[in-house]
Design a protein that fits this description.
Structural class: alpha/beta
Number of helices: 12
Helix content: 40-55%
Distance between the termini: 101 Å
Strand content: 5-15%
Largest sheet: 9 strands, mixed
Number of strands: 9
Shape: globular
Order of helices and strands: HEHHEHHEEHEHHEEEEHHHH
C-alpha cells in the first residue's frame, strides 16, 4: 500500500472518529427519568451493598448526600387540603421551598397554560405503588398508582416506554420506605432488627436490595428498547431514613438521600459530598429545554456541577441549615415547655415567638411551611429563625443562671 493511500486512510479514520465523538458529545437529552426509591438513606448504597446503584456510579455523578426539605407529612390542616404527600415530594417536583396554592410542578411545562399558547412536545408519566402521591399526579399525561410490589411499577413504566416516547417520567418505588416504618414500630419487640434498619435480616435491607434489583431490570429494559443512550436517569429518593426507621424530622438520617445522575451531558466518575433537592426541577428543566417551574427567591438552581462542562461548587448548605433549625426549635420548645411548669414566663415567651405581629419574632417552623414564602428569601428565613433560636437559648440560660423567673 502506498504512503499516500495509508495517509488517506488514516485521515479518513480520524475524521470518522472525530465525527462520532462530536455526535456523541452533542447528543441531545431525549428524556429524563426520575427514579425514586422511597426512604433511601444516604448511606444505604454502600452500607447495604446495592450492586446496581454502585455499578452505575462510575457512569455518572454521585452526590453522596442530597439534602431534602424537612421530611414532615401532615395530613390535615392547610397542607393536607393541598397535598396528600410530604413536603420533600412536593419540593422535588416544584423546585422551590416556597410552596403556595399556585405553585406549579415541572411536568406542567408540557401542558398548555393558555388556549393561545402551546406547550413543548412530549409525554410525561408518573408511576408509583402508593396512593400517598395522588396530589402529584396533576399535569402528568399518564399515571399509574396502585399498591403492590415495586416490580409492578417498573413493569408498567417499561411497557409505556415501549409503546410511546416519554419526555419526563417520575418512578417512585415505595416498599423500601414502608419497610423502614415496619422496623420502627413497637410490634417488633422480639426481632434483632427492631429500631435498627441496618441489622441483618431487617425488612429495610431486604426491600432496598429488591429496589436495586428493579433498578437493574429498568436499566436493562431501557437498553433493550434502544432508549438508554438518550436518557438522563436520576436515581434518588424523597427523603432519607432514620437509623431506627422512618423519617422523623429530628433524625439527621431522614434529611438526606443519595442522588445519582447518569446520561448525556452528565459528568462521569464524579463524586460530590453535598446537593439539595430544590435544584432537581431546575436541572431537569435545563436538560429538557423547558422553563423552570417556579423561579424566584425560594427556587433552586441548575446543578452545573453534575454537567460535563461544570465543576464542583461551594454550597451555602441552606437546606441542611434549615433542617438543623427545625430540630433545634423542637428541642428548645420541648425544654421550655417542660421548664414552664416551674417558670410560667417561659410559656409566655413561646406564645410571643409564635404569635407576635413582628415577622422577626416568629419562627418559620414545620407547621408554618406554607408561610415560608413570607420571609422573602431563603437567606432571610434562615436569619429570622436564627434570631428566634438565640432568643430561646438566652431565656433558658437566664432562668438556669438566676434560678428564678
Amino acid at each position: 500500500m502506498s504512503l499516500l493511500k495509508r495517509i488517506a486512510i488514516s485521515w479518513l479514520a480520524l475524521a470518522l472518529a472525530t465525527a462520532c465523538a462530536t455526535e456523541a458529545a452533542e447528543r441531545p437529552v431525549e428524556r429524563v427519568i426520575l427514579f425514586g426509591i422511597d426512604g433511601l438513606a444516604a448511606a444505604a448504597p454502600e452500607r447495604i451493598g446495592m450492586p446496581t446503584f454502585l455499578a452505575l456510579v462510575g457512569e455518572g455523578t454521585w452526590m453522596k448526600k442530597a439534602f431534602v426539605a424537612p421530611p414532615w407529612h401532615p395530613t390535615t390542616g392547610p397542607w393536607g387540603n393541598l397535598h396528600s404527600t410530604s413536603y420533600p415530594n412536593v419540593v422535588q417536583l416544584a423546585g422551590t421551598l416556597f410552596i403556595t396554592p399556585d405553585t406549579q410542578f415541572i411536568q406542567e411545562a408540557w401542558l398548555p397554560r393558555r388556549p393561545t399558547r402551546g406547550a413543548p412536545a412530549g409525554i410525561t408519566a408518573h408511576a408509583t405503588n402508593s396512593t400517598a402521591y395522588a396530589s402529584l399526579n396533576r399535569g402528568f399525561h399518564h399515571t399509574y398508582m396502585q399498591r403492590g410490589p415495586d416490580k409492578d411499577v417498573v413493569d408498567w413504566a417499561v411497557d409505556l416506554l415501549r409503546r410511546t416516547d416519554v419526555r419526563f417520567m417520575r418512578i417512585h418505588l415505595q416498599n423500601t420506605g414502608e419497610a423502614g416504618r415496619v422496623g420502627s414500630g413497637d410490634e417488633t419487640k422480639d426481632v434483632p432488627w427492631r429500631h435498627d434498619i441496618w441489622a441483618d435480616g431487617s425488612p429495610y435491607r431486604i426491600a432496598a436490595l429488591e429496589a436495586d434489583r428493579q433498578l437493574a431490570r429498568f436499566v436493562a429494559a431501557l437498553k433493550a428498547i434502544g432508549k438508554w443512550e438518550g436518557t438522563v436517569l436520576l436515581v434518588t429518593s424523597d427523603h432519607g431514613q432514620a437509623d431506627q426507621g422512618w423519617h422523623a424530622p429530628l433524625s439527621e438520617g431522614a434529611w438526606s438521600t443519595p442522588m445519582l445522575w447518569i446520561g448525556p451531558h452528565i459528568a462521569t466518575e464524579r463524586v460530590l459530598d453535598y446537593g439539595e433537592h430544590t435544584d432537581v426541577a431546575a436541572t431537569i428543566a435545563y436538560l429538557l429545554g423547558v422553563p423552570q417551574p417556579n423561579p424566584g427567591p425560594g427556587a433552586g438552581r441548575v446543578m452545573t456541577e453534575v454537567l460535563k462542562e461544570g465543576e464542583p461548587v461551594s454550597s451555602p448548605r441552606r437546606i441542611e441549615t434549615l433542617n438543623r433549625q427545625m430540630r433545634d426549635y423542637l428541642l428548645l420548645e420541648a425544654e421550655m415547655r417542660t421548664e414552664s411548669a416551674r417558670t410560667p414566663s417561659l410559656d409566655n415567651t413561646l406564645m410571643q415567638l409564635r404569635h407576635a405581629s413582628l415577622t422577626e419574632r416568629q419562627f418559620y417552623g414545620l407547621d408554618r411551611f406554607l408561610e415560608w414564602h413570607e420571609a422573602g428569601s431563603i437567606d432571610a428565613l434562615i436569619e429570622n429563625n436564627a434570631r428566634v433560636l438565640d432568643t430561646m437559648r438566652d431565656r433558658l440560660r437566664e432562668i438556669r443562671q438566676t434560678g428564678r423567673d
